[in-house]
Design a protein that fits this description.
mainly alpha, 15 helices
């Protein structure tokens, strides 16, 4: 086959990239929630694929069997949690559900003595929140089923992508011009590696946050410390903002114990957050990836306002992916070539003459 048939003209290469990113932008404008669910599914697929590859490399079995074994290990771990850990956790969660309303009523009684507290309670009263009658309940039910449906879709997308990533990667690369396909394969491989590194770093940080929070609350005598540590670990998936949300139940439980306990609880969460942010995460990300904190917070704020909790939860991996694509596609493939072309023109015999 002639070489000219395998190499697309520069204009065709640029058009293929414009069409691909234009289609992505169109989906982002028309159905952003669906795009976030798909990205969450891809993230789950990267997790399953990475675990399967790790087991395959460790045991020498094929990649398919490694993925199957990794999924079985996850199911076994969940089953063990249900059989052994969940009963104790469920008992603590029941106690938390019982004690939180009492703690909230105690807080309500304290702030009712102030004018700003009365105004705040009026704004947050159930009557004001349910002013639309049954519409609020219908919306809550609809959003619950929508969340469950999105979760199921995310699981299936992740499983299909993990089982056969080559087909999906090949289909995406074939949307590019022939001259850009090899580079597209390289960028996609780097993107998968970036997301995998972020997942590993995030799970390690979540584990540290959960264990340290549990031990800290247990040391100062706060009730239900294990379940509060679990809550802290789960909300640590949302950096910077998640720990603040996770501290609310512990503070509500500490209020009846007095001001000293409240201050100690605040100290525990601040210490754990500082330890995780300034020591654990930098050490982990030094070997995995490094993200500018101000940029991460800005993207979290933007996606949280635009898309709610899902956008907030996915802001950090989207930031990591965006930085990679900007560096590889825009800086390396466009700006660097312009710089090289300018240097070549400057050093040419005609320019020197």
């Amino acid at each position: 086959m002639p070489e000219s048939l395998n190499v697309a003209p520069p204009g065709q290469r640029a058009v293929s990239l414009i069409v691909l990113f234009g289609a992505l932008a169109l989906v982002l404008l028309t159905a952003p929630d669906a795009l976030l669910v798909v990205f969450a599914g891809l993230l789950f697929g990267v997790f399953i694929s990475g675990g399967g590859d790790w087991i395959a490399d460790l045991t020498g079995i094929s990649r398919g069997w490694g993925i199957a074994l990794f999924i079985l290990l996850i199911i076994a771990a969940l089953a063990a949690a249900v059989l052994f850990a969940l009963p104790a956790a469920a008992d603590q969660f029941d106690k938390l559900v019982v004690e939180l309303p009492a703690a909230f009523e105690d807080l309500r009684g304290r702030i009712e003595n102030y004018a700003w507290g009365q105004l705040l309670l009026e704004r947050a009263s159930p009557g004001a929140l349910m002013a639309s009658g049954g519409e609020g309940a219908a919306r809550a039910v609809g959003s619950t089923f929508g969340a469950l449906g999105s979760f199921v879709i995310m699981l299936f997308i992740g499983l299909y992508v993990a089982i056969d990533p080559i087909s999906y990667r090949r289909g995406l690369v074939h949307l590019l011009a022939p001259s850009a396909r090899l580079r597209g394969e390289e960028v996609l491989a780097k993107a998968a590696s970036t997301l995998r590194n972020w997942l590993v770093a995030q799970m390690m940080a979540m584990t540290v946050v959960g264990v340290l929070t549990w031990l800290g609350l247990w040391a100062i005598g706060v009730p239900l410390a294990p379940i509060l540590g679990l809550i802290a670990a789960l909300f640590a998936f949302i950096p910077n903002i998640g720990p603040v949300i996770a501290a609310v139940p512990a503070l509500l439980l500490a209020i009846p114990e007095g001001r000293t306990t409240v201050l100690l609880v605040i100290g525990v969460y601040l210490a754990v957050q500082a330890f995780e942010s300034y020591l654990i995460t930098p050490l982990i990300q030094k070997e995995r990836l490094s993200l500018p904190p101000a940029l991460v917070i800005s993207v979290q704020l933007l996606l949280g306002v635009l898309f709610g909790v899902l956008g907030l939860a996915l802001a950090t991996p989207l930031t990591a992916l965006g930085i990679l694509l900007t560096r590889e596609v825009y800086v390396a493939d466009y700006l660097a070539k312009e710089r090289d072309g300018h240097a070549k023109n400057t050093n040419s015999p005609r320019s020197r003459s």
